[in-house]
Amino acid sequence: MKSCIKLTTTLCTLLLCFFSVFSFGSEPGISNINRSPESVVNHFYYEYLTAWNYPDVKQSLEKSNSAIDNFTTRHLQKLRNEDESGADYFTKVQDICPYWVSEITTNLSSLKNNKAVVELILGHSANQPKYKINLVRNKDKWLIDSVSSVSSVSRSSGYCNDN
After folding, report:
1. Helix (H, G, I), strand (E, B), or coil: what is residue 120?
2. Most buried in the list 33, 38, 54, 149, measured by CB within 10 Å?
3. Which helix (H) or strand (E) covers residue 118, if one does?
4. Where are the alpha helices (DSSP H) in 25-115?
């Protein structure tokens, strides 16, 4: 009985090690995220929108700035700083729906050399905002270089309540 338990424990340990290697990869951190344009857009918006939901304003600002620093080009950061629209630069709206964090859809539209275009949808209903995200490859990293709105939503549409 003891040998059967030891054998089962050993087998489970080996299986766990095997799955850990393939699940987590060999490279830590952001380097795995930057392998595809869709992954970069997905991770950026997840981190950015999650930061918006933090109750502590200072922590929210730190987290959103960290996402911007990690996933966007200096060119885009300059455009964002010069934007005077009054809306959030990355979502093109004034109010961000809390559930967008869990409803980020990306689709690679084009990929040529060191440039990519990713379509982004936040939310799931027909009146949710859609974006065209341009990325550039800088060394081994994909970085967001511009964000444009493909479809806009008005606050009167109740888009945050359509979940």
Report:
1. strand
2. 38
3. strand 115-122
4. 30-33, 37-52, 57-71, 74-82
pLDDT in tens, the chain (163 residues): 555 554 444 443 433 334 333 333 333 444 455 679 999 999 999 999 999 888 888 998 999 999 999 999 999 999 899 888 888 889 888 878 888 888 899 999 999 989 999 999 988 766 778 899 999 998 889 999 999 988 755 444 455 655 4
Q: Side chain identity at 77, as an amino acid letter? A: Q
Going by the DSSP 8-state scheme, the letter that residue 89 receives in this structure is: T
The 8-class DSSP code of residue 128 comes to S
Q: Classify domain 34-161 by CATH number.
A: 3.10.450.50
Read off the DSSP letter of residue 125: S
What the block records as the tokens of 105 is: 């859809």
Decide: 123 and 133 in contact? Cβ < 8 Å. no
Strand partners, 104: 122
